[in-house]
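Justification of resources, computational component.

The compute hours requested in this renewal are based largely on the per-chain cost of generating structure records like the one below. Each record pairs the submitted sequence with a full structure-token output. That output is archived, and it is also reused by downstream analysis tasks.
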Amino acid sequence: MKIDIHTHIMPEHMPNWVQKFGYGDFIHLEHRNCKACMMKGDKLFREVEANCYDSRLRIAEMDHAHVDIQVLSSIPVLFNYWAKAADGLETSRFFNDHIAETVASNPKRYIGLGTVPLQDVDLAIKEMERCVNELKLPGLEIGSNINGINLGDQRFFPFYKRAEQLGCALFVHPWEMMGEQQMLQYWLPWLVGMPAETSRAICSMIFSGVMANFPNLRIAFAHGGGSFPFTIGRISHGFDVRPDLVAVDNNVNPRDYIGKFWIDSLVHDAKAINYLLEVMGNDKICMGSDYPFPLGEHHPGQLIESTIADQTLRDKLLFANAKQWLNI
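The structure output for this chain reads:
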């Protein structure tokens, strides 16, 4: 079996919220000359292939890659955290209903993650409750920061508390990368910024006490945990030598939290996956491909299958660890 915990989907048709709300750069999809164009306001943001929204085509490509189940989540640019809270709630509900409908169309092949307007924690909690209780989604995808505010900020603690109570898994995906405007050339926000952004999220949630205060919260981070596993020595050393700066809100060494959160396997390198296993352990790595985007693993699970010979270990990474994270 293969469960791909990191895949993105969007509706084929969505409202033009710029026209409806009268402001902002909300995304909508326009179909032009056989191309699907993601429009950010009135400007072309990205062309996408049909597998980004056509669930039947996704199934065919899953079958080709021998992927049994995809975990569906929104494209991060659709978080809309920058919008007015009520408008962010409306767009979140639209995307969540679409994902729930996609799952319902083929529940043996799809599992859904919702999105919530975290610019307003009370509204985010209400929509999380709807996702879990009404739409039967086992988790949410959230961004690595909320309008530049770290995930460890105290204002988000009620959200984490309720997620823990609901048994709602969280998938943290980098977006709005710090320093993005200073490195726009050469795709550096995606190549350099995203790994750093994910490490920022992990460190923030460790050092702020999120993981200590909510030990039963099941959190997974994209892209192999970003740069965190590869800089844990520096992070731990900083904790030891400057506790006055680092250990202000949490006095537990960051190494002690390894094994208490999940990461996906998307590192593109055999040596890197072996290093991840050595550092992060074999119980908290889940197959993730970033389907259907170019930076993803184009044959999901191939790195695991070509690198790891032990079948029991392969099974953990290909599906068993994902089941634990999602509690399915």
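Residues 93 and 127 are 7 Å apart (CA to CA). The chain has twelve helices and 13 strands.
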